[in-house]
Every structure is written in C-alpha cells, then in structure tokens.
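thread: overnight batch results

M.L. [08:02]
morning all. the overnight job finished for the chain we discussed friday. pasting input first so we're all looking at the same thing
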Amino acid sequence: MSPQQIQTVVVIGVFILLLGFRIYRQTREQRWPLRRYWLSPIIYGAVLALAIVPDTISGSPLSPLAAAIGLLIGFGIGMYQGNHTTLRIDKPGKAVFVKAKPIGTVIVIGVLALRIGIRWVIGGAPGQGPVGANGVPVITPAEAIIGSGLLAIAVGLIIGLRWFVKRAYDAAPNVVTQTST
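M.L. [08:03]
and the structure it wrote out:
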C-alpha cells in the first residue's frame, strides 16, 4: 500500500469511528443544560465561518451565499428533526433531556456523508488533490460552493434542533414533563 492509500484508509476509519460514536450518543438520552445551551451552535458557527473564508478566497466568492442558503435549509431540517426527537423537560432543574429517534440520526449523518462524499468526488481523496504554491489544497468553485452550502446545512440543522427544543422548553409547564414527538 502506498502512503496515500494508507492515509485514505486511516481517514475513512477515523470517520467511521466518529460516526459510530455520534450514532451511539444520539440514541442515548442526553442532558442539555440551559446555561450552555447555545455553546455548541456558536462553536459550530465559528467553524463554519473559518471554513467559508478559504472557500471564498481560493474557491468562489459565492461561498458565503451558498452558506446562507444552506443555513436556512438546515434550520428547516433541524426543526423537522425536532419532530423525531423525544424530549423530557426539567424546568426546575433548567435542563432538557433529548433522545433522537433513528430518523433524526439518519438526517444528521446523511448531510455529513453527502458533504464528504461530494468533496471526495470533486476533489479526490484527502492528500491526493492538487496543492497550490502556499501549501493549501486547490479547490474548484463548484467544490467551494457545494462544500460551504453542505457544511452550513449541518450547522443550520444543529441550530434548528436547538430552536425546536427551546420552544418546547418555553411552552412546557414548570414541572418535569415527557414529550414524545
């Protein structure tokens, strides 16, 4: 095996392990405390912004527009995913316990796999694409637009689900309640 093939196998293996861990975590009830409720979307939003900058500079100036459209689409998908999530609201404890149903997990993984798959088809396996003079991989305008849009869909999905859960929390009475949606 060549070093590039080994690198590709390692990247795929790490990706599969991370997806497996993500699936495992989503099928278990998770506690979302309200104090840190929006921390995860802020972090993912910062990652999105950092990913769009190089896509805009070396790929296409339309990447921010694709990301904005992707955020809106992802927000809608996240709200839909909320309908496939079991919630247990603990207002006295200021927390929400969230358990995604399998369709919710499939939605998240599908969006991420689509983004990685499209980047792989357009740009080739990691480490195999052309590299510019500054050492940064060269990307096509189409790859930049599609990559930014799909990453934004994933971030919008997270924000949409959080928005759905927050609305359910605000609408719940001041006791521990179980909501299966």
